[in-house]
Amino acid sequence: MKRTIAVICGGDSSEHDVSLRSGAGVYSFFNKDKYDVFIVDIKGLDWHVNLPDGSTSRIDRNDFSFMMDGRRRTFDYAYITIHGTPGENGLLQGYFELLHLPYSTSSVLVEAMTFDKFVTNNYLRQFGVSVADSILVRHGEEHSLTEESIQSTVGFPCFVKPAADGSSFGVSKVKTFAQLPSALDKAFCESDTVMIESLLTGIEISQGVYKTRDKSVVLPATEVVTENEFFDYNAKYNGQVKEITPARLAPETAERVAKVTSAIYDILHANGIIRIDYIISKNADGTDKINMLEINTTPGMTATSFIPQQVRAAGLDMGDVLAEIVENQF
Hints:
alpha+beta
């Protein structure tokens, strides 16, 4: 019998609509001859499944079931493609753990940790991963910041971004102390904690990876080229960017990045597809330095997103990749 798959999208962050597009992408990639696939749209307490006839059916949150054709249906597997809460911070994972329903992402702990950029960076730093210097600011503490403390810790220009959020919203490049208050206000709209991070200059790349019992697949990296100040929402979703896969890296550097990507996956004991963003800067001796920016545990999955691009560049099929990830947990 076919397994029944829930492709879960939506969520409660500013990227709700982006997640819907990712959900549609994942749905299109799944092999319908092998799986019965349904899109489940979650927003607040409105959980519903989209049915083949165009109608919807309410999800019973007691057991994650729904009604179709007069009978109750349940799922065998949850493919989570929510960007932000509750699908990228461990909340939904905890729910599925209680139901004993296999899901596509990493565990509750890993999701909660990687959702917080400041925690992730400082955790991975202990394993030798190079990350930018940063300051954590909690809501209500921003008035204690001084120009001198920021200059001595991260310097100007710097980035201000939500620390605990999966969103592309709320990020600002700050060049002077006078620009800081408005940048903090913008970031606090997305998260109760904000990270002020030092500027890293160099080549920005992003690399996907997934592992099963039988294989480890590090996908070709994508180089991100934009005329914008940084890879912001407009660059990411409104076409103001050039994406080159595979990235134009020296072979030795590409090999080193792949090893770092694989190592981070293992350090986290991750599951499913994750995507790691980097800045490749230069050491004093001119050699390439690999700096990790952030980890995406529910990366975008539209046809033009990084992961599908990288899967195609690797000569793989997205449907086959998704099947490997699903079957790895049975």
